[in-house]
Structures are given as C-alpha cells and as structure tokens.
Specification:
single chain; about 230 residues; alpha+beta; HSP40/DNAj peptide-binding domain; 2 domains; 5-stranded antiparallel sheet; 5 helices; about 30% strand; elongated
C-alpha cells in the first residue's frame, strides 16, 4: 500500500509538463465525488494499491501529480472525469419588465424541479450537472421556450475553476445518478405542457455551434431556450 500525503504539482504546470513528457505515467482514476474527499483508497491503472490522506480542505484536481520517482522517471497522476454541465444564462432577463423576469425565473425553477435536476445558482447563471442525456435536457429547455434565457453545455472540468470548493461539492456531489448516453436512435418523450420526460418515442435534437463566452464562462456550444438544436 502506497500512502499519498501531499499533492506535488499538476501536469498543467510548465515545469511538470516538461518533466513528465518522457516519464512512465500511471493513472489513478477518480470520480467527481471522490475528488472532493481528502481520504480514500484506490487501485491505479497499473494495479498499485493507493491510500490518499491529504490535508482536510485540500482536494485533488484533474492532472495532479501524486507520486514522482526521478530515478525511474515514473509518476502517478490523477485523472478525474466530471460530467458535462448545462449553464443557463439569466443576464438577458434584465431587459424584461420585473414582473416578467420574476415569472420566467419561477417557471424555470419549476421546470427544473419537475425534472429533479440539481442546480447551483451563482451570479446570473444557473449550473446544472447532466443527470440525463444532454439531448433530453435540450428538449426540455426547448419545449418550455423560456423568454430571454440562453443555455449552453460545457465540460465539467472547465466549470470547476470558477467555483468555490463548497460550490463544486454541491454541483457535482449531488449528481451521483447514472448519465445515459444515447445516439440518434434513442427514445424520450417530452410532454408539451410541462416538459417532463416520459415513455420512449424517438426524439432528434440537433445543434449548431455558436460562440458565447460571457464574462468568465468558458466558451462552449450555445443556444437559445427557444431554438436550440443539437
């Protein structure tokens, strides 16, 4: 059993990127919930038994270097796969009358609650981790046609740097259910009035990429809630 008590660096750092360019790298694959813990046990891709015991409040990030053997030119690197996140932008609601903006927010909250989607609100954005296929989530948003609301899907790892540790735990720790990936032959029915997903008739949603980097939000495929095709 190998004990890990500190994080040495990250492969995103120039010095470590150079050092590891010719090294033999073993990977420890961690899910998004384990990444929030400071103590756990895991088996690496090469079969080594690892016990992680780092300082409380410290969290492992994707690409963190946990072990380094300069003589053998070998390293242990963490790989974390976070789910994609739907970011709902509320900025444009400011152009609506207050009562209309409030109504839209209530309708958005009702629709998300009806789907049991976990969500995190920060500034003028709502972050929703994917708990179902993104085509289903896009269908729900399109069905409701929320006034002046835009949304986009971005990789989870691109969202984490913009969140505080407790926000990251809330966002990803609350999405432990399975995410089902589907092809164009997948099936889901969105009820026209409520947007709730039922049954298994076919649905096809297509999207055209558009650039929409606003503030500090990472660039990704975007669309409007009225017309989002994937």
């Amino acid at each position: 059993m190998i004990l890990i008590k500190t994080i040495l660096g990250n492969i995103g750092d120039a010095a470590w990127a150079t050092r590891l360019s010719s090294a033999d790298i073993d990977l420890i694959e961690i899910d998004q919930w384990e990444a929030q813990k400071s103590r756990f046990r895991k088996t690496t891709a090469n079969g080594a038994e690892i016990a992680v015991s780092i300082d409380r409040g410290t969290h492992i990030h994707d690409g963190d270097v946990l072990l380094w053997n300069a003589q053998a030119l070998s390293a242990l690197v963490a790989r974390i796969e976070l789910r994609d996140v739907m970011i709902v932008h509320l900025d444009d609601l400011a152009s609506l009358a207050p009562e209309m903006a409030m109504r839209t927010c209530v309708e958005l909250g009702h629709a998300m609650g009806n789907q049991h989607w976990p969500a995190l609100v920060k500034d003028n954005r709502v972050y929703v981790p994917l708990t179902v296929d993104r085509k289903v989530m896009a269908s729900v948003m399109k069905t409701h046609g929320f006034e002046r609301i835009r949304y986009e899907f971005v990789p989870g790892r691109e969202v984490v740097p913009y969140l505080a540790p407790h926000e990251s735990r809330r966002l990803f720790g609350g999405a432990e259910g399975p995410v089902h990936s589907h092809t164009h032959d997948s099936y889901a029915d969105v009820e026209a009035e409520t947007g709730r997903v039922y049954g298994h008739p076919p649905t096809h949603v297509h999207a055209h990429p558009e650039a929409a980097a606003h503030g500090q939000t990472p660039p990704a495929t975007t669309g409007s809630a009225r017309d989002h095709r994937e």
